[in-house]
Sequence to fold (119 residues):
Amino acid sequence: MKLIVLFIAVLCMTTTFAQTQTNTPAPAVQHFAQCMFSISDQTQLDALTVEFYNSHPEVERVRFDMNTQRALVITTGLISFTEADFTSWFGQYSSAVTCVQVGVYGVDVMNSYPFTNCQ
Fold:
């Protein structure tokens, strides 16, 4: 009798554990965006970096390279992320952005520098 009760107790605990494992949320999707830009002042780039972090809490990393005029942004927690979304984040510098590529970080292949297939 003790063996049957023990077996039922173990079975109940195993079932409960299995159900809690399936209820865990899926990991957040990370997106990346990269582009070329034409901003010639390092002070403007520094201010833009701060604005990216302050205005967009989903931004995990921002890199603006003054020498190559290239930007890379990694986001987390966004359901979707488009080229138009990314370009709008540049605000008054939106017209300075070209050759945008957006994708899922770790899934889609990033274009390597120099970007040779821009429209």
The two ends are 76 Å apart (CA to CA). The longest strand covers residues 30-37. The mean pLDDT is 84. The chain is about 35% helix and 25% strand.
